[in-house]
Specification:
Elements: H1 7-39, H2 44-50, H3 61-70, H4 77-90, H5 97-116, H6 122-140, H7 147-166, H8 171-188, H9 203-219
């Protein structure tokens, strides 16, 4: 915990955690929507992206997967993974070699499909999910944490809260994760004090509180 980080490296580690979590959570939701488009409701994918404020159109389940992965919208998973890769490169010296290699491999998995114009399927998602599981395992395998590990964990938890609130999922779970974020905050900024949140509070208030915590740790 004596390791020093620049604000730039800390921010890159934080966003690496966020982007990896966003891709993983999105893959789970996309896979569920994909199955439902086939068996239950063709408009399941439209409903999912409406929650993100995004309009998409597709002709069938395979087309939906390709638009989710490579379509022209802000939740394009290939683009999100490119951001994760860029942040990993910036903070390369703080990331274990195995984890860094798996991040590059995951990005390459998407890049090859994108460049070849290949239609992706459930096997593509399974491979991506396996690689993400490997990355998280490689990032958390060690017995003791260094300071840079907390920034990755914080990014992962912040994204969990953000996605749960934006997609109107379990708010109680989001508040539990907020407590985990506060635990990390107490380690990285012992003098910072923040009030706990309740389920009755507006989502925007909770998200604003998260941003204040991040600014306290990284900017200040």
């Amino acid at each position: 915990m004596t390791q020093l980080l620049t604000a730039n490296s800390a921010l890159s580690l934080y966003w690496l955690g966020r982007y990896l979590e966003r891709v993983e959570a999105s893959l789970i939701d996309i896979n569920t929507a994909y199955d439902n488009i086939i068996d239950v409701d063709k408009n399941e994918g439209v409903a999912l992206y409406e929650k993100l404020g995004i309009e998409i159109e597709y002709t069938n389940s395979s087309d939906f997967l390709n638009i989710a992965m490579f379509g022209e919208h802000p939740s394009n998973l290939y683009e999100l993974l490119s951001f994760a890769r860029e942040n990993a490169i910036v903070a390369r010296s703080y990331i274990e070699a195995e984890a860094f290699g798996s991040i590059i491999e995951l990005h390459k998995h998407f890049e090859i499909a994108q460049k070849n114009g290949a239609f992706v399927d459930f096997r593509f998602i399974d491979t991506a999910m396996s690689l993400i599981s490997e990355i998280w395992g490689e990032l958390t395998r060690k017995q003791t944490r260094n300071i840079h590990d907390y920034f990755i964990a914080m990014g992962k938890n912040v994204e969990k809260v953000d996605m749960h609130l934006r997609l109107a999922k379990d708010k109680e779970f989001a508040l539990i994760v907020m407590k985990e974020i506060d635990t990390i905050v107490s380690i990285l900024a012992p003098n910072a004090q923040f009030k706990p949140h309740t389920i009755d509070e507006d989502d925007e208030v909770i998200l604003s509180s998260i941003n204040n915590k991040i600014n306290k740790i990284i900017v200040e």
